[in-house]
From TrEMBL:
This is Histidine ammonia-lyase. SUPFAM superfamilies: L-aspartase-like (SSF48557). The gene is hutH. Belongs to the PAL/histidase family. Keywords: Cytoplasm, Histidine metabolism, Lyase. One of its GO terms (biological process) is L-histidine catabolic process to glutamate and formamide. Pathway: Amino-acid degradation; L-histidine degradation into L-glutamate; N-formimidoyl-L-glutamate from L-histidine: step 1/3. There is a cross-link at residues 142-144 (5-imidazolinone (Ala-Gly)). It catalyses: L-histidine = trans-urocanate + NH4(+). The modification 2,3-didehydroalanine (Ser) is found at residue 143. It is found in: Cytoplasm.
Length: 511
């Protein structure tokens, strides 16, 4: 990707472009000037006799020790080496790139006191697509994402392991030399400045919000397909009914459902007075209430993420008047709370989708469709076990909805006696989003089969576009066949955005 993102006032889209599409980054002249000015103040402190945390003292519970000037370079090296104590599976490249970008943005504010040349190494790593190996376990989400960011700082020092642009695991020194990047010997306070931020959890929040924008539209598409397949009504989605309860997300979801179901031949087929049902089940009738609440939750999370994206998080910080002050802005509670909140919304949207799928498979509730949508029920099982898979995922999503941020384990000899667990909240949200994608894929696949079985009645143009896209890679009703690849094909259509894109070509932009 040729786009170059200036390091300044980043947008969510900038973060996604750098993290996922590999966009290049550049430090602006203003950022370099701000860093240089703040660095001058740190060097004054380093040369003086007044104790300054992280400049002339130890860290955490060891902050009472004054460090002699000749040991201060070793202090920074020791900090990074000891804090690079992550463990477990490697974190995804997109997450590491996001946290690198966000840390670079904070360095560029001039509030951390790092030298411009130190920040430049981080810029070079991003542009060379050299990704430090960061492990899943190690962050308590307070004093920053210390262990994950320490693995990045270790790379800046030329130590540890990285993945190169081809994804090959290599020693850092070897990869840097090949890319023409000179490692840095950290100076006073720089080690601390590189690791004292909420960049990992914020990066995962921003990526999650990008995924959810697509998935919440997809949830409306799959819900509309299910409403049609189950001979439901779209009357309950009328805008005047939504205005009676003016939640913006609910109104947006209902508008999507109306657009998706407009001119449905299947709906027209049961509007002749023969239908005796007064109301649809909640999983159909209340779809915009649930998907809408999830939208409003995502909007709140985006508000928090936007504020965090404007923040300069470090401890201590260099203020514009030259003061260097300790603070608690590294605490991850604001981000951790909304990460947990989103996991609750994700679980509930998935739970409702699973209920609609189950209804389509039950001959007692699916209004004339064959049991389990099977070609020859009894000989064939149709989508029976696909719903089992959905149920297993939904059960896991409910466990993942248990908040991480209510937990706290004191650390650093009780100096850090309350922590956010925001990194853990972010990791489980990523798992939850993957689960929601798969649950929606199974509902979409099942609803598509049911719509085919309603022939000769035709679906609406909007839902019909989704059905047509599926049929390009997944066959229609017939005897049982290997189902797992078909589910995975729909997962790809959803996660890539192709499903929503195909629908929006017919309906116009969905909210």
């Amino acid at each position: 990707m040729s786009e170059v993102v200036p390091i300044g006032d980043l947008t969510f889209e900038d973060v996604v472009h750098v993290a996922r599409q590999g966009a290049q980054v550049t430090l602006t002249e203003d950022a370099i000037a701000e860093m240089a000015a703040a660095r001058g103040r740190i060097e004054e402190l380093a040369e003086g006799d007044t104790p300054a945390y992280g400049v002339s003292t130890g860290f955490g519970a060891l902050a009472t020790r004054h460090i002699d000037p000749e040991l201060r370079a070793q202090l920074q090296r020791s900090l990074i080496r000891s804090h690079a104590a992550g463990n477990g599976p490697e974190v995804e490249t997109e997450v590491v790139r996001a946290l690198m970008l966000l840390r670079l943005r904070t360095l560029a504010t001039g509030h951390t006191g790092v030298r411009p040349e130190t920040a430049k190494v981080l810029e070079d790593l991003l542009n060379a697509h050299i990704t430090p190996v960061v492990h899943e376990h190690g962050s308590l989400g307070c004093s920053g994402d210390l262990a994950p960011l320490s693995h990045v700082a270790l790379t800046i020092m030329g130590e540890g392991q990285v993945r190169d642009a081809k994804g090959t695991l290599r020693p850092t020194g070897e990869a840097l030399k090949e890319a023409g990047i000179e490692p840095i010997e950290l100076a006073a306070k720089e080690g601390l400045a590189l690791i004292n931020g909420t960049d990992g959890m914020l990066g995962m929040l921003i990526l999650a919000l990008a995924d959810l924008r697509n998935l919440l539209k997809t949830a409306d598409v799959s819900a509309a397909m299910s409403v049609e397949a189950l001979l439901g009504t779209d009357a309950v989605f009328a805008d005047d009914l939504q205005r009676l309860r003016p939640h913006p997300g609910q109104r947006a979801s209902a508008a999507n459902l109306r657009a998706l179901l407009r001119d449905s031949g299947i709906m027209a087929s049961h509007r002749d007075g023969s239908c005796t049902r007064v109301q649809d089940a909640y999983s159909l009738r209340c779809a915009p209430q649930v998907a809408g609440a999830a939208r409003d939750t995502a909007d709140h999370a985006a508000l928090v993420a936007g504020r965090e994206l404007q923040s300069a998080i470090d401890n201590p910080v260099v203020l514009r008047d030259g003061r260097v002050e300790s603070n608690g802005n590294f605490h991850g509670a604001p981000v951790g709370y909304v990460l947990d909140f989103l996991a609750i919304a994700v679980a509930d949207v998935a739970s409702m989708a699973e209920r609609r799928t189950d209804r389509m498979l039950d001959v007692a509730r699916n209004h004339g469709l064959p049991a389990f949508l099977a070609h020859d029920p009894g000989v064939d099982s149709g989508h029976m076990i696909a719903q089992y898979t959905q149920a297993a995922i939904v059960s896991e999503l409910k466990r993942l909805a248990v908040p991480a941020s209510v937990d706290s384990i004191p650390s650093s000899a009780m100096q850090e006696d309350h922590v956010s667990m925001g990194w853990s909240a972010a990791r489980k949200l990523r798992t939850a989003i993957d689960g929601l994608t798969r649950v929606l894929a199974i509902e979409t696949l099942t609803a598509a089969r049911a719509l085919d079985l309603r022939a000769p009645h035709r679906p609406a143009p909007g839902t019909g576009a989704a059905l047509a896209l599926l049929r390009e890679s997944v066959a229609g009703p017939g005897p049982d066949r290997f189902l797992a690849p078909e589910i995975e094909a729909v997962v790809r259509l959803i996660s890539s955005g192709a499903l929503v894109e195909a629908v929006e070509k017919v309906t116009g932009p969905l909210s």
